[in-house]
Specification:
The protein has 115 residues and is an all-alpha fold. It has a domain at 31-70. Helix content is 76%, strand content 0%. It has 3 helices and no strands. The longest helix has 44 residues, at 29-72. The protein is elongated, with a radius of gyration of 46 Å.
């Protein structure tokens, strides 16, 4: 009995779905199809207009944000290259003498004869 009830209910559900897809008697199915297409095209146009408006708004906000960031930016400090001050000749001569002594010590050690 339950099986028969399940078949009947399934048959009614399938029939109601198929009946909903058939246009009523005396109507032109192509006319309804055209109206559906027109409605869908109008919906797509509204969506495109909304997206274009959002893009314009975001573009304006972006320009405003860039202006604010550029206004808040600090100007770069100019780099002025300065020449090194001339050193004291006595200090420079002493530094060169010490460097020569250290270098010659290394040279002497490298030039030594093996034992």
């Amino acid at each position: 009995m339950r099986l028969l009830t399940a078949f009947v209910v399934t048959g009614l559900l399938a029939a109601s779905g198929a009946a909903a897809q058939v246009a009523p008697y005396g109507t032109d199915p192509h006319r309804y199809q055209v109206e559906r297409h027109q409605a869908r095209m109008e919906s797509l146009r509204r969506q495109a207009d909304a997206r274009a408006e959002t893009a314009r708004r975001l573009e304006a906000e972006t320009r405003l944000t860039l202006r604010e960031l550029e206004a808040a930016r600090q100007p770069p400090t100019p780099y002025v290259e300065q020449a090194a001050p001339p050193g004291d000749p006595a200090v420079t001569t002493e530094r060169h003498r010490r460097t020569r002594e250290a270098v010659t010590q290394i040279d002497d050690w490298l030039a030594r004869t093996p034992d």
